[in-house]
Description:
Layout: H1 4-29, H2 33-36, H3 47-66, H4 87-106, H5 115-140, H6 153-165
Helix pairs in contact: 1-4, 1-5, 1-6, 3-4, 3-5
Amino acid sequence: MKNPQLEFKTISKHRMVNHYYPKLKTSLETIGNDIIWHKDSEGLNSIGGIVLHIIEHVKRNTARLIDPDVKFHEGIENFFPNLNMDKHIILEELKRAFSDFEIALDHLNAEQIDMYNIYHLVEHTGYHVGQIIDRIQRTTGIRFRFVQNGLNEKELKKIVEEELKHQPEKFG
């Protein structure tokens, strides 16, 4: 018998850590600070601002995994700062945020997670990852070909199934 909560937790973790994070990292590594902080027009966010938004969203959800009672005084729907941070610092922050998320999720039983919040995080991150990749591809002409290079649903499913094979079965 399958445990849907455990499957959800495992799929969510690997989609974030083994699917979205590598795409963001690879994409950002191809561009310089000038492109990261460029705005196509005054009303748009820079790639860097969007990345910092993702990082903050991951950090907040990680904090909720660690302490479900944590409260934030304001939302992040308008948090797209232009800090002109160096790309290498952004990449370190990104790595740390996704790593901390993975560790926090791994330390919880599947039944302890708030599926709604995790689903929102995964969906929201996926949206912004696509947005960033599209902007970088349009700006640079680079085609990342992630699917052809192994970052695809088939490979993600293999990673998830391998981890699930080693999880103790729980029946509820």
